Amino acid sequence: MAFDFNKAINRFGTDSVRWDQHNPDVIPLSVADMDFAAAPCIVEALKKRIDHQVYGYTHAPEDLRDSIVSYLRKFYDWQIEPEWIVFVPSLVSSLYSITSNVTDPKAHILTLQPVYHHILNAAKNSGRNYSEIPLSNINQRLVLNSQSIGNFAQSNSELLLFCNPHNPGGTVYTHNELSSIAHICEQKNLIICSDEIHCGMVYEGKKHIPIASISNEAADRTITLMSMNKTFNIPGTGLAWLVCKNQKLRQKASMGLGTLIPDPQVFTYTTAQAAINQGEPWRKALMSYLSDNRDLLRATIEDFGVIDLYQMEASYLGWLSCEQLQIDDPSQLFLDNGVALQPGSMFNKMDHVRINIATPKITLLEALKRMKKAIS
Q1: Distances (CA, A) of 24 to 36, 143, 300, 338, 366
Q2: Hey, what CATH class is 27-40+280-375 in?
Q3: What is the per-residue burial (b if ≥16 Cβ within 10 Å, else e) of 246-285?
Q4: What's the chain's average pLDDT?
Q5: CATH domain 64-278 topology
Q6: Domain definitions of the chain by residue range
């Protein structure tokens, strides 16, 4: 089946967080959702569920855990048990609750620099002391160095907030890199909370490896957060889940579910199950299209000469260094020329911006044209 990712869908007037915050003259390539229609299998599943006309309190489908177990084994060579899975309404809310649930109030938390802003804010808002570990830049590839974990860890450090594939940098960690991180976390007795929401968006030639799959020791200290929301563009009606082998840790991580944190609802189960069971042809077509957009972005940025693109090994988010421009806020420069990018300030990197390439090629071409004009 052919999927048309070139189709431009007007998102104005649909309460889109990204498109409604600017006037129609601005191309918004900031907030991390895609401008593509959801996979037909998801649309059909929702229509079928809507036609039932009763939308009451809903538990997870009996076979959904088994579907996830099979999915993780097939795509990531990760063997888990169904009881390790806990369904949550939001990956983001879990980041915030986990930092409090699994650590002592006097504990110290480690996070990354730069990193997805909700990971950073989860550490900030936890009431715990925290440190941001600067990532190493190796040939425009951002990597967490295990030695840096040791340098920043304190005697009361209890939790590492990790992100793989990395947002915003796009790094897909190798087995050796993950082994080193898992080993130092074992030495320092650190729990790992790993945001792996972009794992379904790894480009050809790379492979996502869940850090919890590295060893039994890593599995015993890791809470893995996953969802189909990013890969299938369903954050408005998507489901998330955590995977944790360690029963005591899993119980701590689940505190608040069904009370302060609501249970997932009917349509979230519907979309997740359709994506897992039927969405692979669409996902493959999507990644092929995004790969072309990534190549276009890379070639254009190289032509600019004054901006550097970090290696995009996964996701539709490009991390751009604008240090050579030597201006206080490069995102404002581009906004003044009709392109809204995610400001680097969100990631504590004022001289960077993040660009979202999950948009029809004609839109990306126009945005890059405006960016070139802004620079010149």
Answers
A1: 18, 38, 24, 9, 14
A2: alpha beta
A3: beebbebbbebbeeebeebebbbbbbbbbbbeebbebbeb
A4: 96
A5: Aspartate Aminotransferase; domain 2 (3.40.640)
A6: 27-40+280-375, 64-278
341-370 burial, b at 16+ Cβ within 10 Å, e below that, comes to: bbbbebbebbbbbbbbbbbbeebbeebbeb
Burial class (CB in 10 A: 0-12, 13-18, 19+), 104: exposed
Q: Give CA 277 to chain center in angstroms.
A: 21
What separation in angstroms does the CA of 322 have from each of 49, 156, 170, 220? 47, 37, 17, 40
Answer whether 97's CB lies under 8 Å from 266's CB: no
Same fold, 27-40+280-375 and 64-278: no
pTM higher than 0.85:
yes
pLDDT for residue 39: 97
| pLDDT greater than 90 at residue 271 | yes
In this structure, are residues 145 and 153 in contact, taking their beta carbons and an 8 Å threshold? no
Exposed / middle / buried, residue 108 (Cβ in 10 Å: 0-12, 13-18, 19+) = buried
User: Each residue of 210-261: pLDDT tens digit?
Assistant: 999 999 999 999 999 999 999 999 999 989 999 999 999 999 999 999 998 9
Res 238: pLDDT: 81
